[in-house]
Amino acid sequence: MNTNRFMYLFIVIAVLGVTACAPSAEANPVDRFAGTWSGSMGFSDDPSAKQDVVVNIPTGCAVGNVCGDTTNPGVSCQWEMTLSALNQNVFEYKFSKTLSGGDPCEAGVGTGGTLTLQVDGTLMREHNTPMFTASGALTK
């Protein structure tokens, strides 16, 4: 009888050991940026100007793929974002195409910037164009 108990205990310990050592599914690091973020942007060429922006980032993004969109309601523009790189807490993107807003918004295609996750949970956005840099904090 003791042999059966010992064998049962050995099997339980072995199963627990195997399941504890099994590799877990690693979360996508880009998912930390997922959500709808909004805030006001300031501009390097006109410090008194401010415009609102909304950034949508879905879960499951991968470098080199489309990963959300950015909307600037003040000028009625919306752009598709492609994830260029992910470097720890910095999400680098490019505007890959204009989703709405027509010709005036086309100038934004090809420009890009960074979204940096801050320790307080906000997202610092810096978007660079040939004419100006827009920056500001975004919240969920």
What does this structure look like?
- The chain is α+β, with helices and mostly antiparallel strands.
- The chain has a single domain (29-138), classed as Lipocalin.
- Helix content is 17%, strand content 49%.
- It is built from two helices and eight strands; from the N terminus they run H-E-E-E-E-E-H-E-E-E.
- The chain has an eight-stranded antiparallel β-barrel.
- Strand 2 and strand 3 form a beta hairpin.
- The longest helix is centred in the N-terminal third of the chain and has 20 residues, at 2-21.
Q: Using the coordinates above, name the CATH class.
A: Mainly Beta
Query: What is the CA–CA distance across the termini?
Result: 61 Å
Poorly predicted regions are none
* Lateral arrangement of strands in the main beta sheet: 1-2-3-4-5-6-7-8
> What summary fits the major beta sheet?
8 strands, antiparallel, barrel
- The proportion of residues forming helix, as a percent range, comes to 10-25%
Provide a concise account of the structure shown.
This protein is an alpha+beta fold. It has helices at residues 2-21, 103-106; strands at 35-43, 46-57, 66-72, 77-87, 90-100, 112-117, 123-128, 133-138. The chain has one domain: Lipocalin, CATH 2.40.128.
Helix/strand layout:
Layout: H1 2-21, E1 35-43, E2 46-57, E3 66-72, E4 77-87, E5 90-100, H2 103-106, E6 112-117, E7 123-128, E8 133-138
Antiparallel strand pairs: 1-2, 1-8, 2-3, 3-4, 4-5, 5-6, 6-7, 7-8
Structural key phrases:
140 residues, alpha+beta, Lipocalin, 8-stranded antiparallel beta barrel, 49% strand
